[in-house]
Design brief:
Blueprint: H1 3-8, H2 15-33, H3 39-45, H4 56-85, H5 87-106, H6 111-124, H7 128-138, H8 144-148, H9 150-169, H10 172-175, H11 177-180, H12 184-188, H13 192-212, H14 218-244, H15 275-278, H16 281-309, H17 321-350, H18 352-361, H19 369-379, H20 386-416, H21 423-454, H22 462-478
Helix pairs in contact: 2-7, 2-9, 2-13, 3-4, 4-5, 4-6, 4-7, 4-21, 5-6, 5-13, 7-21, 9-13, 9-17, 9-20, 16-20, 16-21, 16-22, 17-18, 17-20, 18-20, 18-22, 19-20, 21-22
């Protein structure tokens, strides 16, 4: 079959339902990135560092790590629950918890309350694997690459909106004194407003999902059909009895069919397979690569705002939260638009495996950019000049390539599931693996960063050397990804 033939027979995407699922996915990057512009300042203001700026990385790393500990602890359970009761109720419940935890984070006054709120956010975000399962059930092999091509878009959009919200609405009493300068509440809780905006966004998405999203789990759909069939049969029997006995005298004595008398619609996929049966060599290879992907990506996500906010004498760029939010927001917007356009064509032209390897290898250029920018800034007398901005833009461009890996990885994960009834569990296993790595990455990256600065290891750049070596190992691991899909895309 030629490529043109495949295009002719490609199944149209269910655009509205796909859009609703992507909206739910959008809440995850917003809630996870909204704190990035101000979390380091927030940690310092709790007093936990006791005025020592070098210790900020330790405590900021704890906050980020526990977010992914919560996600790892809940993601498989969310997936298995969705395999039993359906995708929609699980997704709705997750949005409720996420909204409440965002408000709690903004109202925190102590470091440990920050930690607790962030952990609950991670638990709520554990249902991210359920959204990917729903996407897999909404598509087939002819249009799946196009659908999953929107995953980088929603993440990039969330990574755009989140930091913009965090940078723009933090410290509103100081930023807009005429509007909020007299508010004692906002002076006491300077980071409540960005958290509240993110929490309200989740509540809005909850309303949209409740009204418009249809169930996608085949077993749940069949149960709904069985219920409707039973109710229709009972109603038809009641109507027939009334018509045959116009005076209704025999109605109470007539025998109506009970639900047990109506045969169930066969459902061969209702039972979800065990976790052990899903751990095939093919899936294990994918999980190893997902481990490197999550570890490298999350380490960079933590180091970016940490390094950008660190003072210039200590090796950073000395940016304030607003500048960091503007940089991350602008980059995320450009990144999302670009990847939504290029992902599916690149998969068709290069193949999923080759695209993954090339995109992941681009991270080998990202980590060396940090010490290079520090060197250029100090050489310019503590000024972030055009040369620094040039390196910064190139760094973000290389990092953008990494987002292509998530789409290709998701194609492989869906392909590795034995049936649609196993999508939730398969995605849950993969997401748990990624979340465990992301729970380690913030503490690892921020602690290595702090140690590098405190002991001046390799001029404060030891953390970047270690992460470069880990990235190189990930490149070698990517060469073992299967060359072809079990079910051709």
């Amino acid at each position: 079959m030629t490529r043109d033939d495949r295009k002719v027979h490609r199944t149209p995407l269910p655009k509205m339902q796909l859009f609703l699922v992507i909206l739910i996915m959008f809440a995850e990057p917003v809630s996870s990135t909204v704190i990035y512009p101000f979390v380091n300042a927030f940690v310092r203001e709790t007093g936990i560092t006791r005025g020592d700026e070098k210790k900020t990385g330790y405590y900021a790393g704890i906050i980020e790590s526990l977010f992914f500990v919560g996600e790892a602890a809940s993601v498989v359970q969310w997936g298995r629950a969705s395999d039993r009761i359906g995708r929609k109720p699980v997704l709705m419940f997750g949005l409720v918890i996420l909204s409440a935890s965002m408000f709690s984070f903004g109202l925190s006054k102590t470091f440990w309350l920050l930690v607790t709120s962030r952990f609950i956010q991670g638990v709520a975000n554990g249902n991210i694997g359920v959204t990917k399962s729903a996407m897999g059930e909404l598509t087939d092999s002819t249009n799946m690459a196009r659908a999953f091509g929107y995953i980088p878009l929603q993440w990039a959009a969330g990574a755009t909106v989140g930091p913009l919200i965090g940078g723009l609405f933090s410290r509103p009493a100081e930023r807009w004194p005429k509007l909020f300068g007299r508010s004692d509440f906002l002076r006491s809780y300077p980071y409540f407003m960005p958290c509240a905006v993110a929490g309200l966004l989740s509540l809005m998405l909850l309303t949209v999902v409740a009204m418009g999203l249809q169930e996608t789990l085949p077993a749940a759909i069949k149960r709904q059909q069985q219920k409707i069939s039973r109710q229709s049969s009972i109603y038809a029997s009641e109507t027939t009895t009334l018509l045959n006995h116009g005076d209704g005298s025999a109605y109470n004595n007539s025998q109506l069919p009970s639900e047990s008398m109506i045969p169930d619609i066969p459902d061969s996929e209702e039972s979800s397979p065990s976790i052990r049966s899903l751990l095939t060599p093919r899936l294990i290879i994918l999980l190893i690569n997902y481990t490197f992907l999550a570890l490298v990506d999350q380490s960079h996500q933590v180091l970016l705002p940490l390094t950008y906010s660190t003072s210039i004498p200590l090796g950073g760029l000395g940016f304030d939260p607003f500048t960091i939010g503007a940089i991350m927001g602008t980059w995320g917007m450009i990144n999302g638009i670009t990847q939504s356009i290029i992902f599916a064509p690149l998969v068709e032209k290069l193949g999923a495996r080759r695209l993954y390897v090339v995109a992941f290898a681009c991270m080998l250029l990202v980590f060396p950019a940090y010490p290079l920018m520090s060197f250029l800034t100090k050489r310019a007398g503590g000024i972030v000049d055009a040369w620094v901005w040039t390196v910064l833009i190139m760094q973000l461009a290389c990092n953008s390539m990494l987002f292509l890996c998530y789409g290709t990885m998701q194609l492989y994960l869906v392909d590795s599931a034995p049936s649609k009834s196993a999508y939730g569990t398969t995605n849950g296993i993969a997401q748990m693996t990624a979340s465990l790595c992301r729970s380690v990455s913030p503490a690892l990256a921020s602690s290595l960063y702090a140690i590098s600065l405190e002991h001046n290891l390799l001029g404060g750049s030891m953390v970047f050397c270690i992460l470069w070596i880990i990235t190189l190992a990930g490149v070698f691991a990517s060469l073992h990804i299967p060359r072809a899909f079990t079910h051709p895309q």
